[in-house]
Prior knowledge:
By secondary structure, the protein is an alpha/beta fold. The protein has helices spanning 5-9, 13-20, 30-40, 43-49, 63-71, 83-96, 133-142, 163-177, 186-194, 217-233, 235-250, 257-260; strands at 52-57, 74-80, 101-105, 118-124, 144-157, 199-206, 262-270. The protein is built from 12 helices and 7 strands. Strands 3-2-1-4-5-7-6 form a 7-stranded mixed sheet, with helices on both faces.
Amino acid sequence: MKLTRKEVGELGLYDFQSYIGAMNQPTFGGRHGTLNLIKNLGIPEKSLQKKISILEIACSTGYNTCEIAQKYNCDIIGIDISEISIVLARERKKKLHLDNCEFKIADAMNLPFDDNTFDIVFAEAIIALLPEKGKILHEIMRVTKPGGCVGTLEAFIRSGTSEEILMEINNVMTTVMGFPIAIKNLDAWKELFAETKLKNIQIQDYYDSVFDRSYKFWETLSFSMKLIYYLITNKKIRQKIMPTMKLARKMINKNSPIIRNLGYFIFTGEK
């Protein structure tokens, strides 16, 4: 995918990060968190018994979707609201010669699928960022088959976090994502999941490696060079990115108050 300098300048922060390759790895918990989510959803075992149908919500550029398609006996669909992310995901699929996955532009709040369509539905790092968390959970459950499994991996605020730090965390998230965000604490998440009436609910909480990105050296080099290039050559991108870079550094500094007061959890349940 190749955009003109003008088209790049019109991108939002999320789309720009996808475009330069900075969204090609899991966020909360990194690869370790994703592998645990896949395991807790039962994908490895269930795919040995039959070909299973899977939906990934907010698939970004398709890294998880394609990896699952490669490893397991399944048909999987990845959806994202970002057109650029979906274009890049389709390019990834084509490069890997995969015929058991597809990608669609879709809103997680209004999924374009019939009731009871998928054996497994999961999401990563999206429900925490949306205001109507109950609505997206309702949509996830709606398209899951009876007896099917749903899951998500999300960030939470540690209990006892001061109002000052909480405000800073939400401000950082809001600035980076470009829309208002309010992260819940773990007890609030548990109450929300209890309201779904799902069976066999499991919640595992983690406090280390919250923003553990598993990039290879060449991936880091590639998107870093692209970022530097657009910061130098594109005024609009420079105006958008520069104010967030200081904030973003706080999200990867293990000693920052932000990281010390964040955790992530893996939730699964059965319909």
